[in-house]
Structures are given as structure tokens and as C-alpha cells.
Design brief:
about 500 residues; alpha/beta; four-stranded antiparallel β-sheet; four-stranded parallel β-sheet; 10 strands; about 65% helix; elongated; transmembrane helix
Length: about 500
């Protein structure tokens, strides 16, 4: 999968609207300049300004006032539409990426994809590109008006615009390099903070508080230097148009007065020159947005380059009920279970868990579930038939109810949930967690390891899986009894030495 195309779908229509709005602004600019000349000409000749000239002047200004928010709204819609597609594509790609690949990435870097990089990706189509379109329409219109008023005026505007573009191109390389370095250091610092903040008390207890503070100061100082350099260069480019327009205005006044041109012609030239200042300044900011876009797009392309699970080959479905399981993998004791049987593996074999749950790529012939190679089973079949009981269940922030029914298409009612758990003698476990309405944090971070295991067990009980994978010590008798009497095939992944006597025969059989 690749990053979404910038010009696709409704964005083509939005971009056409941007071009139309920019051309309308150019027409309004020309109308303003010529109406200004007509007003001064009538004023010089008759001492009065006809109503139609005043209406034309006011109408051109009103049109500019109406078109500008329309243009900006279209630009924002263009950027937001692209950002939405990037979010969807990135989440979809990440959801189909092998879990082993995601573990290689720091959580802070993943967060930057959805915050810093996404903002840069949105700002180019939402700000930079529209400003480029606007400048491409308004600047030629302003130069054309100046040529119509007087050839020297046109050459003055042309030289002014050319000087601005030369300065822009000269600063583009330095600005792009500075922007890339700034984004890299900002991402590094953000990732460091995201990694260290949750561990701050533990790091302090390990005597690393002063060292971590020095590291943050050092990287913050490096970020500050690059940020100041970029801001200074960007603002220098932004301020250049004012200097160029001021020089061009002086040239127009000097030439117009010496050539004896009518005051209306000079005023019209100054109006056109003044109206060209805004798009000229906007053009100077284009490089900044484009540099950020290129840096973020490179990171996005790298994210999309991560290998995916072979979901396209998953085409077999399983029926419900206990399933047979066959494991034949390197470094894991071969194991074959008939439907409803128990099997045991040491915790060193816990790498099999993401394969059984469909989170990671499966070897071609090493794992079979229900007599079928697991690599060919649909993710829906794995979701419905495999349940994992462990201390790290996938949980979004919300209620216990939400945690228990996460991934369920037809969410059962509260009464149905309670009845199912009571029938399986797990009602007290639910009440011990605080009931369905209790609010818990993301990842159930505010629960103990034992309570997270209980939560995972309740979710498994509601799902009625064909294979139950248990990778944790069961925290109470009710869960232990339910798991051992559940009709599903059960795969126990246990520590090599366990204080619970119930695991004694299993542990002895592993040595």
C-alpha cells in the first residue's frame, strides 16, 4: 500500500475550485486597479466621480472580500480531506502490519505520525499549494495591469517579482535542510519524552533523574538552535516582499511624476502593486510548507514500506466449537492437540501467541488450526475462534462493558452479558472488577496484572472460543475452574517454575 494520492477523488474538484477562486481574485485585482484609474481621471477632469465607477470600485473590493474566505475554505477542505485519507490509510496499513514489526518502533515515533507529521502533510495541500496557486494567478495579473498602465510600470513589477523568486529559490535549499533537521530533532525529543514520562518515578528511583534532565536540556538546546535559524530565515523571506514593493512603489512614483502621467494612472499602478503584496508574501511561505511536507512524506513512505501480514491469502473459514491444534516450529516443542484437549508449553514459546491470534505472520506449514494452515484462515475466523487470557488485553479507554465487547459486531445487552457470565460461574469476577459501568484507562493501565487477566478471561468467556490460549497465572479459583472445564481446546503457556501446586505435574513434564 502507498500513501494516498494528493489529487484524487473529490480533491480534484476542490483544486479546480481553488484555481477558479484564484482567477476570480485576479479579475477583482485588475478591476480594482482600473476602477481606481477611472475614478482619478474623472476627478481630475470633472471634479466628480460617476456612481458606476464608485460601484465598480466597491464591487471589486466586495468581491475580493467574498472570494478570500471562499478560497481559504476550499483550501482547508482540500487539506483536511487529504489528512483524513492519510489517517485512514496509515491506520489500515498499521492494523495489517505484523506485530513483530510494530514492536521495533518507539511509541513516541508512532504518535508523531498522527500529530507532527500529519500536520505537515495537511498544511501543504491546505496552505502551501493553495498559496502557490493564488500567487500564480494574482502576480501575473498585477504585472499585466502594470503593463497596461505603462510599460515601465510593468517592467518594474516584473523585476520585483523576479527578484522575489530568485531570493526564494536561493533560500529554498537552506530552508529545506533546516526544516528537515528541525523535524528530526523535534521528533527525537518528542519520542524521548513519550518514552520517559511514564517511567519518570522509576527512573528517579534508579538514580537517573539528573542524567535524564541533562539529556532533555541538551536536546532542547539543539532543537532551539535549529528552530531559531529556521525562523530567522523564514521571516527574512517573508519580509522581503515589503522591501521590494516599497522600492517598486518609489520607482513608479518617480517615473510617473517625471513622465507627467496622470495621477489616476499612478494611483492605479500603486493599487495593483499593493494588491500584489499579499500573494507575494504568501509565495514566500510556500517553500516552508513544501519542505515540511517532503520530510513528513518521506517518513510516511517509510511507514508504508513495512511488511504486511499475508492477509490476501486468508480465505478459509472455520466452524465453531473445539479445534485441533498442531505446532511444528523451530525452538518450540512439537505439539498436537485434538479438539477439547489440553496442551502445555513453556513461557519461552510465548512468541506463538501473536501467530495464533492473527497479529503476526505465520509460517507456511508450521501451525495448523482445525486441520487448516493458520496462514490461510481468515482474520474473522481467528477472531471468533481464538481467545487469549493474559495480562495485556487490548483495551480502549472506557467502561468494563466496552472492554468486554471490543470487537463484537452485535453487542449483547447488559442482561445478556451478566446471564452468560453467571451461567459460567464468573458473575463474582465481574462484580469484583466493579461491574460493567466501571471506567478504566487505556490499556487497562489502572488495573493490576491480576485484574487484567480477569478482564481477559471474562472477554474470552463471552466469546466462546474454540481455542483458549492461557499465558498468565490465573488469579482466582473461579477463573481457573472455568478455564479447565471450558470445552475449547486449551493451550497453557506457563513459567518453568510456578509456586502454584496445581501446575506441578505440568512443570515436571517440561523438564
Amino acid at each position: 500500500m502507498n500513501a494516498p494520492l494528493l489529487f484524487s477523488g473529490r480533491r480534484r474538484i476542490l483544486f479546480a475550485g481553488l484555481i477558479g477562486a484564484a482567477l476570480a481574485q485576479a479579475v477583482s485585482l485588475a478591476a480594482t486597479a482600473f476602477a481606481t484609474r477611472a475614478a482619478f481621471s474623472w476627478l481630475d477632469e470633472t471634479g466628480k466621480i460617476p456612481p458606476f465607477v464608485l460601484c465598480a470600485l466597491a464591487g471589486a473590493g466586495l468581491a475580493m472580500a467574498v472570494i478570500r474566505p471562499l478560497f481559504r475554505t476550499l483550501a482547508e477542505d482540500f487539506g483536511q480531506d487529504y489528512a483524513r485519507d492519510v489517517r485512514l490509510a496509515l491506520f489500515d496499513h498499521t492494523s495489517r502490519t505484523a506485530a513483530s514489526e510494530l514492536k521495533k518502533r518507539r511509541a513516541g515515533h508512532m504518535a508523531m505520525r498522527f500529530i507532527g507529521d500529519l500536520a505537515a502533510l495537511k498544511n501543504w495541500p491546505g496552505l502551501g499549494l493553495p498559496r502557490l496557486v493564488q500567487a500564480a494567478a494574482l502576480l501575473p495579473a498585477a504585472i499585466g495591469v502594470l503593463f497596461c498602465l505603462a510599460a515601465p510600470f510593468g517592467w518594474t513589477g516584473l523585476v520585483m517579482t523576479a527578484a522575489a523568486l530568485v531570493a526564494l529559490l536561493a533560500g529554498a535549499k537552506s530552508l529545506t535542510a533546516s526544516h528537515r533537521l528541525l523535524r528530526a530533532r523535534r521528533a527525537q525529543l518528542a519520542a524521548d519524552m513519550a518514552e520517559r514520562l511514564p517511567l519518570a518515578p522509576q527512573l528517579a528511583a534508579l538514580g537517573r533523574r539528573a542524567r535524564e534532565l541533562r539529556l532533555i536540556r541538551k536536546r532542547s538546546a539543539a532543537l532551539r538552535r535549529v528552530a531559531l535559524e529556521r525562523v530567522a530565515l523564514a521571516e527574512l523571506l517573508h519580509g522581503l516582499p515589503e522591501a521590494l514593493v516599497g522600492i517598486a512603489a518609489a520607482v513608479i512614483l518617480i517615473y510617473g511624476s517625471r513622465a507627467g502621467l496622470a495621477s489616476g494612472t499612478i494611483a492605479a499602478a500603486l493599487a495593483a502593486l499593493g494588491l500584489s503584496l499579499y500573494p507575494l508574501r504568501q509565495a514566500m511561505g510556500v517553500v516552508n510548507h513544501f519542505a515540511a511536507f517532503r520530510a513528513a512524506h518521506a517518513k510516511l513512505a517509510a511507514a508504508f514500506a513495512r511488511p504486511l501480514r499475508a492477509d490476501s491469502f486468508r480465505d478459509l473459514r472455520l466452524g465453531r466449537g473445539p479445534l485441533s491444534l498442531s505446532l511444528s516450529l523451530p525452538d518450540i516443542t512439537p505439539l498436537t492437540l485434538k479438539p477439547g484437549e489440553d496442551g502445555h508449553l513453556p513461557e519461552t514459546a510465548s512468541s506463538i501467541v501473536p501467530i495464533l491470534s492473527g497479529h503476526d505472520a505465520a509460517p507456511v506449514d508450521g501451525v495448523a488450526l482445525g486441520g487448516q494452515p493458520i496462514g490461510r484462515l481468515t482474520l474473522g475466523s481467528l477472531r471468533r475462534n481464538v481467545a487469549v487470557i493474559g495480562p495485556r488485553p487490548a483495551v480502549l479507554r472506557g467502561s468494563i462493558r466496552r472492554a468486554l465487547t471490543l470487537g463484537v459486531l452485535d453487542r449483547p445487552s447488559d442482561e445478556t452479558i451478566r446471564k452468560r457470565l453467571v451461567v459460567q460461574n464468573l458473575g463474582p469476577v465481574l462484580e469484583g472488577l466493579g461491574g460493567l459501568d466501571r471506567r478504566i484507562a487505556e490499556g487497562a493501565a489502572d488495573l493490576s496484572d491480576a485484574d487484567r487477566v480477569r478482564l481477559a478471561a471474562l472477554r474470552a468467556a463471552l466469546g466462546r472460543p474454540g481455542l483458549l490460549v492461557i499465558v498468565a497465572n490465573l488469579p482466582d479459583l473461579s477463573i481457573d475452574v472455568w478455564a479447565r472445564t471450558h470445552p475449547a481446546t486449551r493451550l497453557w503457556i506457563v513459567p518453568c517454575r510456578h509456586p502454584d501446586a496445581a501446575f506441578g505435574p505440568t512443570i515436571r513434564s517440561l523438564h
